[in-house]
């Protein structure tokens, strides 16, 4: 870029007059473009704030449960590990002190809490934030109460969720056992987002039947490096080292792809706003062509014209972005208040109530993006304005189009090819960043190609020798000036394409999930236990004898941590029927297993996350020395972190765990499902009835699909807003272009074309513009959908699916676009043709 | 003239346009300070093209154009732009008064391109409006004026920065005969009294009569010595 000419600096007074005059005379144009930028910034900032605030709350909750120990030894699964490991860990070099912990998911009334069993003497040194405080005046001392087997200390959030006070008698259900306790005090050091209860560890092990097992050892260290090295060598497969950072990464990882995808989607509105600025500035440049030519003739350098248009754009960006930040903060506050940090996706269920946390760096970033969008939207029109030859522009204002001029197609091809090439590159840190970049390039290519597409679409019509005058004029005008249509359409093509891409992906995904549910929900009744309860062998035998039951499959599902910084996958122990194909939706099979190997079936997400292939030997932290071999891969849309299926008899042999927490029942023909369900509940031990949920496949299916729809509700909302911004751009641009052709209409009326014919011409033009935009947007959207389906979804969420096209949505979008463009052209046309023919052809501004 | 050198000195100018068509060849022209020259000819002979060449908006195929001794061909686009800004004034057929600036700002526009002093620029503009008979109307807008008045504003703008050369392209093309006469007289008087060199293109011999010299671009436009020079006594 050349250094600024002296003339440019010296001419800034002229620039100020030019820009100020334009704003005074056309305030609505600037207001509309600033609003478009504001909407884009508001949505992006709001989504980012909501995600950030929810994540902070989630992290806070996790920190609260973990007690902020420097380092911990954690069980790989809820089965825990042998407490005999504790003294070995405590005596390891580099370890100053060690606090054993039993950790159970528990139910306290309607509240779900984490119940921790602590050795209060050790915890007071290692994790003092987890020590309960007994209020004065209740009798007894803190120390006495801490060892009381019935004493429970609750965090403030747990007390609020359960609606209990200190001194209350409560029943806590965990590990399948309901135990009466007394709320003895509070956990003053616990985070406000944390719902935890603390008891004496021996009391928890005894009363909740976890004798000999612990789940965690929190460590205080003298030498971290020495301790880590020694512990890594000594820990069994059922335990692993973990840090607070790893715990955060685990929680972060589960929702990261969702948050990044949502951030990207939220930026769609900003992208559309940028295109709207481009359309508005392009029109403004055409309208001011002679003014710019005059200034160039009087001696303003080219750069002055670029500077004028760019300065306008930057001013729009600054005003719009500032307004957008304020609106975004308000949106985020409202969203958190009414919808929670979830936004429907369910990733932050275990976090506390989220509050908006202002992020200055993010605010600066979105502000810059808003200004950049407006600046970029003005840069090209500015260059176009500066490149016009002043002498010619002074003489010939308005259309100087040459219909013989070919429209370049190669920029579109270059961008599309670059986009496809970029999109297929591998993920970066588990995120499909190249996928998003590829989509942006393809989007740019599609928008750049609209003039070529319009020309190709209209050429056959333009060659027709005869037809109604309005239709002939409409086709000829658009065929000769496809750039005008492109200016109107660039924003809406971009937002339509992205909307169609998302709609196609969601339709494909939903269809795949619905089909998958049909495959996996093959039983007549389903039941599962809660709060750690399970069906013991005797209970299972009794259930199987319930009248009407043809067969029952009992399974155990528990989280299994493979890597400390990754979310745990689900280990599913179920009957595999002697090696016959046990699973519906099998995607790939491995070779015959070597003798002595244990067959496991991994889900598609597990395969993608851990890189497991059929035939691979893998390590599972449930049994040392056991050779687990991947027998096959199955499709699973239910568990994003992955799942591994193992034969339940093998599982029991390896772990000794004979409890089962899920059952799928097949009924005899003609048996009433509801009645049999009631009979099943009645057959359970009384203590287990309250901890068992029963449902039928249709209800499960509906619940799953409702969850699915909720998780995409925000996506639909963001897309709808982007479409509205795009439609506003079409309306404004078509309207402005129509009004600018007043003299042309005056000339036509001199020739004898009636006002009605003119309006018909404009209506047809508008419809053609809308149709061009619809076809371009839909075509581009279907291509972008493939990037979403084949690249972004698998890289983000580790799922694949086949493409299903939402024909109804496509048709609706096309009709909406055609209608909007035609309607605005007609409305503007009525105004543009309102003057008399004589007035319209006056040579003036 | 400054030290005997004309303000505008054209030597052996030649230009072709796409077609291809030769507009003129071997064209010579010299205009002194305070002198108004009219260039007449039918539509399409190249009058406006000649004006564009003189303004540095286009480059000749052959020959030399010098303004105040500066050869335009030796300048790049940036320098030619600066020359236009500082040394040339323009009057157009279509007036080109910007509708969203006040009349005062319109007149002061050439000054605003070279200085940030708005007060001084507008004061000078107001003086120029006074000189063309529109004193006190500086805060008005273009829509308030008739065609003749708009062209007077344009004349004021062309002179506000004391240019050495004034170029006028059909300055009365959009005016009725009576108004045209008055505007022309004003224009010619302003050129002479400000000591600028003036070149006016027109298709009207009647309008050209007010000039000190009339040059005719011939129908074939090929030879500079095909010009018919008519000098006012």
Task: Describe what you observe in this structure.
With 845 residues, chain A is an alpha+beta fold. Helix content of chain A is 58%, strand content 15%. In chain A, the strands form three sheets. In chain A, strands 12, 13, 14, 15, 16, 17, 18, 19, 20 and 21 form a ten-stranded mixed sheet that branches. In chain A, strands 3-4-8-5-7-6 form a six-stranded mixed β-barrel. In chain A, 49% of the residues are buried. With 233 residues, chain B is α/β, with parallel strands linked by helices. Helices cover 33% and strands 24% of the residues of chain B. Chain B has seven helices and ten strands. Chain B has helices at residues 47-54, 77-87, 103-112, 118-131, 147-159, 177-194, 205-208, and strands at 8-17, 21-31, 36-40, 62-67, 70-71, 88-91, 165-169, 197-202, 213-216, 229-231. In chain B, the strands form two sheets. In chain B, strands 6-7-8-3-9-10 form a six-stranded mixed sheet. In chain B, strands 2-1-4-5 form a four-stranded antiparallel sheet, with no helix packed on it. In chain B, helix 3 runs parallel beside helix 5. The A-B interface holds A 5, 7, 10-14, 17-18, 21-22, 24-25, 290-291, 294-302, 389-391, 394-395, 843, 845 and B 48, 52, 55, 57-58, 77-78, 81-86, 88, 90, 92, 94, 96, 98-101, 105, 109-110, 112-118, 121, 142, 174.
């Amino acid at each position: 870029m050349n250094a600024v000419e002296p003339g440019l600096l010296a001419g800034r007074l002229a620039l100020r007059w030019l820009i100020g005059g334009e704003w005074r005379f056309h305030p609505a144009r600037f207001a509309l473009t600033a609003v478009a930028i504001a909407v884009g910034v508001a949505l992006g900032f709001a989504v980012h704030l909501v995600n950030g605030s929810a994540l902070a709350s989630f992290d806070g909750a996790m920190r609260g449960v973990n007690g902020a120990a420097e380092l911990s030894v954690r069980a790989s699964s809820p089965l825990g590990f042998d407490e005999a490991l504790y003294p070995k860990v405590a005596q390891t070099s580099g370890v100053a002190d060690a606090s054993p912990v039993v950790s159970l998911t528990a139910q306290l009334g309607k509240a779900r809490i984490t119940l921790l069993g602590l050795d209060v003497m050790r915890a007071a040194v290692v994790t003092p934030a987890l020590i309960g405080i007994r209020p004065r005046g209740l009798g007894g001392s803190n120390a006495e109460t801490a060892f009381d087997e019935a004493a429970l200390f609750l965090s403030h959030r747990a007390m609020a969720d359960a609606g209990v006070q200190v001194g209350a008698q409560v029943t806590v259900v965990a590990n399948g056992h309901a135990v009466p306790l007394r709320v003895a005090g509070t956990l003053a050091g616990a985070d406000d987002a944390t719902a935890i209860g603390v008891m004496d560890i021996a009391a928890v092990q005894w009363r909740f039947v976890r004798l000999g097992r612990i789940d965690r050892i929190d460590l205080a260290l003298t030498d971290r490096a020495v301790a880590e090295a020694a512990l890594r060598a000594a820990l069994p497969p059922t335990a692993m080292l973990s840090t607070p950072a790893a715990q955060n990464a685990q929680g972060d990882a589960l929702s990261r792809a969702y948050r990044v995808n949502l951030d990207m989607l939220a930026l769609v509105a900003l992208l559309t706003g940028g295109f709207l600025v481009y359309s508005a500035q392009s029109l403004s440049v055409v309208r001011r062509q002679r003014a710019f030519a005059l200034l160039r003739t009087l001696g303003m350098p080219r750069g002055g014209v670029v500077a004028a248009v760019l300065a306008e754009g930057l001013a729009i960006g600054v005003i719009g972005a500032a307004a957008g930040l304020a609106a975004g903060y308000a949106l985020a506050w409202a969203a958190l208040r009414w919808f929670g940090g979830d936004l429907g996706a369910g990733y932050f269920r275990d976090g506390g109530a989220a509050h908006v946390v202002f992020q200055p760096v993010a605010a600066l970033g979105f502000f810059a993006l808003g200004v950049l969008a407006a600046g970029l939207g003005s840069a090209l029109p500015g260059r176009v304005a500066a490149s016009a030859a002043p002498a010619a522009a002074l003489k010939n204002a308005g259309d100087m189009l040459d219909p013989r001029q070919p429209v370049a197609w190669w920029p579109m091809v270059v961008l599309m090819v670059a986009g496809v090439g970029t999109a297929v590159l591998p993920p970066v840190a588990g995120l499909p960043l190249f996928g998003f970049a590829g989509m942006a390039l393809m989007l740019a290519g599609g928008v750049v190609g609209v003039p070529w597409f319009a020309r190709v679409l209209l050429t056959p019509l333009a060659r027709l020798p005869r037809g109604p005058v309005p239709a002939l004029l409409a086709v000829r005008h658009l065929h000769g000036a496809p750039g005008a249509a492109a200016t109107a359409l660039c924003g809406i093509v971009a937002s339509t394409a992205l909307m169609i891409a998302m709609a196609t992906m969601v339709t494909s995904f939903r269809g795949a999930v619905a089909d998958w549910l049909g495959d996996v929900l093959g039983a007549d009744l389903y039941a599962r236990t809660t709060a750690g309860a399970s069906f013991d062998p005797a209970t299972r035998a009794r259930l199987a004898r319930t009248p009407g039951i043809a067969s029952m499959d009992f399974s155990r599902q528990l989280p299994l941590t493979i890597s400390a910084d990754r979310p745990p996958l689900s280990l599913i122990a179920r009957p595999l029927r002697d090696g016959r194909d046990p699973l519906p939706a099998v995607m790939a099979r491995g070779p015959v297993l070597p003798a002595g190997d244990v067959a496991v079936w991994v889900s598609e997400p597990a395969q993608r996350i851990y890189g497991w292939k059929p035939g691979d030997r893998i390590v599972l932290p449930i049994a040392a020395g056991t050779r687990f071999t991947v027998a096959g891969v199955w499709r699973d849309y239910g568990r994003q972190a992955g799942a591994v299926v193992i034969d339940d008899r093998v599982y029991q042999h390896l772990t000794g765990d004979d409890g089962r927490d899920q059952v799928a029942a097949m009924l005899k023909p003609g048996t009433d499902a509801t009645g049999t369900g009631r009979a099943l509940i009645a057959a359970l031990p009384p203590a287990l009835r309250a901890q068992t949920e029963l449902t039928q496949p249709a209800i499960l299916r509906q619940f799953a699909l409702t969850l699915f729809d909720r998780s995409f509700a925000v996506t639909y909302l963001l897309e709808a807003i982007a479409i509205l911004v795009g439609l506003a751009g079409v309306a404004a641009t078509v309207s402005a272009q129509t009004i600018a052709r007043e003299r042309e209409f005056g000339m036509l009326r001199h020739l004898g074309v009636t006002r009605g014919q003119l309006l018909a011409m404009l209506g047809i033009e508008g419809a053609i513009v809308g149709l061009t935009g619809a076809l371009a947007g839909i075509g581009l959207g279907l291509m972008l959908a493939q990037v979403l389906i084949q690249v972004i979804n698998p890289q983000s969420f580790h799922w694949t699916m086949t493409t299903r096209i939402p024909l109804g949505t496509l048709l609706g979008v096309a009709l909406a676009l055609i209608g909007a463009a035609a309607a605005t052209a007609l409305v503007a046309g009525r105004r543009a043709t309102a003057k008399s023919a004589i007035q319209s052809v006056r040579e003036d501004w | 003239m400054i030290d005997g050198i004309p303000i505008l000195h054209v030597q052996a100018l030649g230009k072709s346009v796409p077609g291809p068509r030769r507009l003129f060849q071997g064209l010579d022209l010299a205009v002194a300070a305070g002198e108004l020259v009219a260039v007449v000819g039918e539509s399409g002979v190249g009058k406006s093209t000649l004006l564009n060449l003189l303004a540095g908006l286009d480059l000749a195929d052959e020959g030399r154009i010098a303004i105040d001794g500066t050869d335009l061909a030796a300048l790049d686009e940036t320098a030619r732009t600066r020359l236009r800004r500082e040394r040339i004034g323009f009057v157009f057929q279509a007036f080109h008064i910007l509708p969203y600036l006040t009349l005062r700002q319109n007149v002061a526009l050439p000054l605003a391109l070279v200085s940030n002093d708005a007060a001084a620029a507008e004061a000078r503009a107001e003086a120029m409006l006074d000189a063309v008979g529109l004193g006190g109307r500086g805060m008005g807008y273009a829509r308030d004026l008739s065609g003749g008045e708009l062209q007077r504003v344009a004349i004021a703008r062309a002179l506000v920065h004391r240019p050495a050369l004034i170029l006028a392209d059909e300055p009365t093309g959009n005016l009725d005969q009576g108004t045209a006469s008055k505007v022309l007289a004003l224009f010619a008087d302003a050129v002479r009294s400000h000591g600028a060199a003036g070149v006016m293109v027109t298709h009207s011999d009647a309008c050209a009569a007010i000039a000190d010299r009339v040059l005719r671009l011939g129908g074939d436009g090929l030879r500079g010595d095909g010009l018919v020079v008519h000098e006012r006594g």
